[in-house]
Amino acid sequence: MNDVEDAITRAHQAEWARVVAHLARRFGDLDIAEEATAEAFATAVERWPTDGVPPNPGAWLTTTANRKAIDRIRRENKRDDKQKEARLVYDDDPAVPTVPLGVIDDERLRLIFTCCHPALAMQTRVALTLRLVGGLTVPEIARAFLAQENTTGQRITRAKAKIKAARIPYRVPAAEDLPARVAGVLAVLYLVFNEGYLATGPDTDPVRHDLTAEAIRLTRLIRALMPDDGEVAGLLALMLLTEARRCARVSASGELVTLDEQDRGAWDAALIAEGHRLVRERLATGVAPGRYQILAAINAVHTSARDIRDTDWSQVVALYDQLVRLDPSSIIALNRAIAVAELDGPEVALAAVDRLADKLAGYHAYHASRADLLRRLGRGQDSRSAYDRAIELAGNTAEIAYLTRRRDQLR
């Protein structure tokens, strides 16, 4: 990749959400915002190799996108109507008490609350936010959902149309509405973080720091809004404890490094300390923890061990038992089974994993987990078949490299 291509990639990671959010606020139309932003980046791909990378790529992209949006409005001969719609979405009703802009004045956060409006189905909120805020492609979002690309694309298109038709406002919700609205936002941010933590696209970096950093930044902003909300603190702690291990998760050769093989000296001590502090603060309240708080506590156990052999697996399993009561999903059950293998052995864990076959047949981590358990039980041929299926389903390049090596070691 030459310098110009590298600059365009960096600009896309840093500026996509900013440009979309700016145009959404100005024109009050997500279709115009998204398409004009995409056109601006396409223009950059065409012109920057000849004209050179501008001194301020973000400003160049924003100016170009604004012009593209205005050109489209003029072509449609509906400029007055568009401007009226923009004012309806842009203007805050002075009679509605909202969180003061001095507390949180961030266009991307406004965009997130718009994308996560309760009028939209949860999967639609996530898909729309990943597209408009995260800048992910439809194929990447489809992989995150284990869904078809055309279904995901249609979901995003319908969501934008519904926001437009219902005149869903582009703003941070009123203070009294925040608790009900924040759960949907946290779910979206968690999936954005996960896409960065282990990117699903085969043509992207295996770990996308731009997405994890953005998810953490926006979660910090929501915590500033709701400092007493346990699940906001829990999600932030979970993200920090996971992000702390980022530099140790991919080898120099581009292969995923699993938790048991990571250099724990390379973990970010400051992020771990902050994450542990948040977990302790929530425990001290005596309030029953939610899903994100329990996941953060599990990660706190892992990051407290100086060596994988020092991990308190009984505590990890106990926390998963608590989590299963709140979230009886198949993926949580799979993760619990992996921890059970360290306590009760791979045979017991394999039986638990096999019970999930019908629900997780299309999930690569299910087959990767089976492959490892079968390997530990000495069932080489079955393990190889499971590795083959995991490799076939995986999209992350680092993960594919790891799974391929483990499969080939069976020879």
Instruction: Give me the strand/helix succession.
Output: HHHHHHHHHHHHHHHHHHHH
Helix content: 55-70%
**CATH class of the domain at 320-410, anyone?**
Mainly Alpha
Tally of individual helices: 20
What is the overall pLDDT average?
A: 88
Low-confidence stretches: 86-105
Proportion of strand residues:
under 5%
Major sheet: size, sense and barrel closure?
none
Distance between the termini: 36 Å
CATH architecture of the domain at 320-410: Alpha Horseshoe
* CATH topology heading of the domain at 320-410: Serine Threonine Protein Phosphatase 5, Tetratricopeptide repeat
Number of strands: 0
Structural class: mainly alpha
Cα Rg: 23 Å
Shape: globular
Summarize the structure.
Helix content is 70%, strand content 0%.
Care to describe what's here?
There is one protein chain. This protein has 411 residues and is mainly α. It has a domain of 91 residues: Tetratricopeptide repeat domain (Serine Threonine Protein Phosphatase 5, Tetratricopeptide repeat, Alpha Horseshoe), CATH 1.25.40.10. It is built from 20 helices and no strands. The longest helix is centred in the first third of the chain and has 25 residues. The two termini are 36 Å apart. About 5% of the residues have low confidence. GO terms for molecular function: DNA binding; sigma factor activity. Belongs to the sigma-70 factor family. ECF subfamily.
